[in-house]
Amino acid sequence: HPFPIGDRVTFCGKKCVCQQCSHSLKKDQPVKVLGPSYCAGCSQEIKQGQSLLALDRQWHITCFKCRTCGCALTGEYISKDGIPYCEDDYHTQFGIRCKGCSSYISGRVLEAGGKHYHPSCARCARCHMMFQEGEEMYLTGEETVHYFLTAKSAI
């Protein structure tokens, strides 16, 4: 769950625990306190107030911004090479468009002959059925098709 505003956050090695959950920590396990923390955005020491942990680094809440447009990243973000971006800027700079619907692909992608598809947009040019998980796609010219074996009758 997101950390409640104003709550104390305890850093326990690799994870942060909210104030409510910190009561359930085993008392025989020491809480690791590291030296001063520095913001990954502005490189200044994080002294007081809230900070957040993202991309394996600590940030002042006001410093966690999209590298391109500078908007505050309060919810979802996409990172590339440890740099945070809002979804729109990430797709504009690095996104892959679906050959079927022309919108950007987030999540799973199917690829055939250098063309990229959402799993729901990848359809056979002959039978118009979607390709299923693990099913092979074949290129014939510019078309992506299923591979069908046809039985030949013995003469």
Automatic annotation (TrEMBL):
SMART domains in alphabetical order: LIM
Domain annotation LIM zinc-binding: ranges:
37-96
Q: Which InterPro entries match?
A: Actin-binding_LIM, Znf_LIM
Record keyword S-adenosyl-L-methionine present = no
- What residue stretch is flagged as signal peptide? none
Keywords associated with the record? LIM domain, Metal-binding, Zinc
What is the official name of this protein in its record? Actin-binding LIM protein 3
